[in-house]
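Example S7 (structure tokens).
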């Protein structure tokens, strides 16, 4: 008897994206999201816990949402919280947007580097990295 593994079977690896459920309403595209308390769901990133990716579209609470996973050798569009310059290291804000790594003492979550400039509330192209905690001391 032969064993078969089907390409759409549960488990395995994911390349670049996955589908999850929105734990709360996600009212904007390209926001960073993190795992929510309910397995299989995501919520807007809070700047403290590690985000897993960005959402492709808006979603109502409980709706399925495509999540573009961070850490791949690719770029993603994210929302700039304020002015960003090309080459800036970017961290997650409490509103699921990105900002330049502050010089103020604190703990931040880096999600990538800006590929170009962006003004506040605009999309910025980000070369992503695996999300990591960065501590700035003065």
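Recovered sequence:
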């Amino acid at each position: 008897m032969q064993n078969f593994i089907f390409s759409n079977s549960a488990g395995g690896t994911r390349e670049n994206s996955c589908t999850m459920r929105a734990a709360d309403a996600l009212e904007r595209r390209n926001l960073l999201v993190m795992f929510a308390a309910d397995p299989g769901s995501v919520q807007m990133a809070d700047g403290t816990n590690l985000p897993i990716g960005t959402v492709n579209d808006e979603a109502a609470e409980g709706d399925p949402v495509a999540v573009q996973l961070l850490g791949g050798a690719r770029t993603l569009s994210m929302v700039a919280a304020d002015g960003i310059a090309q080459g800036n290291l970017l961290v997650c804000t409490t509103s699921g947007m990105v900002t330049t790594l502050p010089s103020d003492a604190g703990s931040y979550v880096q999600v990538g580097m800006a590929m170009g400039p962006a003004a506040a509330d605009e999309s910025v192209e980000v070369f992503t990295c695996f999300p990591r905690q960065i501590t700035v001391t003065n």
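Notes on this example. The radius of gyration is 16 Å.
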